[in-house]
Amino acid sequence: MAKAAGTHTKKVRRRVSKKSGKTQFDKYDLYHKAVQSAENDVVFITNTYKELKKKAPRIFREDFCGTFALSTEWIKLNPKNLAIGVDLDPEPIAYGKSHYLSKMRPDQQKRMKVIEGNVMDPSLEKADIIAAMNFSYFCFKQRFLLKNYFANAYKTLNKDGIFLVDVFGGSQCYDAIEDRIKHKDFTYYWDQTNFDPISNEALFHIHFRVNGKKIERVFTYDWRLWSITEIREIMHEVGFSKSHVYWEGTAKDGSGDGNFTRVDHGEACESWIAYVVAEK
Ligand SMILES: C[S@@+](CC[C@H](N)C(=O)[O-])C[C@H]1O[C@@H](n2cnc3c(N)ncnc32)[C@H](O)[C@@H]1O
Q1: Which atom from ligand 1 is nearest to the alpha carbon of 119?
Q2: Residue ranges of domains in the chain, CATH in brackets
């Protein structure tokens, strides 16, 4: 969510009102431009599967899919790829259908399935890869809930499947700060309102400034901050045979460079992002 400045750069399409010349307020489009890097993420995900399993993955399930931007990129990556998106909320699903799915070719649309449902559902369709991105599983604040979710991911993975989650941390994530990143047509704010060191719960918000007006709390995240160690322990407890950590490299200016490599040890820094990948 709080992808560090420079973590991923991508071209952005302007969404400008024909009448006023002003940028329209479209929260999912702004979110997409500010925090998502779906085109890069799917390349990393497919390469990681190939590296671990020595074969190509086909079925990708995006848990907590929201507007399922990642799934649509998965479909575009290979004509044999299939994707399943799962989210409880009909609003981002409807946005994804009208803004991404409808713009894909009919043969691509046929390979995409979107489910309005719960990631805890044991009857979800099986996949080669299950991904929970942008830290969505941080919504599970109790250990048994996170364990139940990981157990369901394990159960609904194909043999040879991998389960992939992203995670962030660093000393800065405990500070009450507001981070600001200026984009061409808008400003993105990452507001760390509160962190409770007793419960490890944190309250974060995304605000946007568009056309000179700051729109507060467009997205709110009420999370527990899980550590890589806790995540890996729970993955192994539910049956995963191995887990790996992919750590982001550092650019010259000290920010993340968008390249993730498998490591055994990280480095202490103010803000970091990593992937934890578990093998069935
Ligand atoms: C932070 S958004 C993530 C969107 C997207 N994955 C991304 O990469 O940006 C979290 C999403 O998780 C969904 N969600 C929360 N709990 C869920 C559950 N138990 N089952 C399915 N979706 C859930 C919410 O509706 C919301 O759309």
Answers
A1: 20
A2: 39-169+226-279 (3.40.50.150)
Q: Whose CA is nearest to atom 4 of ligand 1?
A: 66
pLDDT tens digits for range 217-276: 999 999 999 999 999 999 999 999 999 999 998 888 888 888 999 999 998 888 899 999
Q: Encoding tokens for residue 155?
A: 């159960």
Q: In degrees, to the nearest 5, what angle opens at C-alpha 93 toward C-alphas 88 and 96?
A: 155
Query: Looking at residue 24, what is its pLDDT?
Result: 76
Which residue spans within the chain are E strands per DSSP?
59-63, 82-87, 112-116, 127-132, 157-169, 178-182, 186-196, 201-210, 213-224, 242-250, 256-263, 272-279
User: Ligand 1 mean position to 146 CA, how many Å?
Assistant: 14
Both tokens assigned to 75: 């479909």
The size of the chain, in residues, is: 280
Average pLDDT over residues 155-164: 97
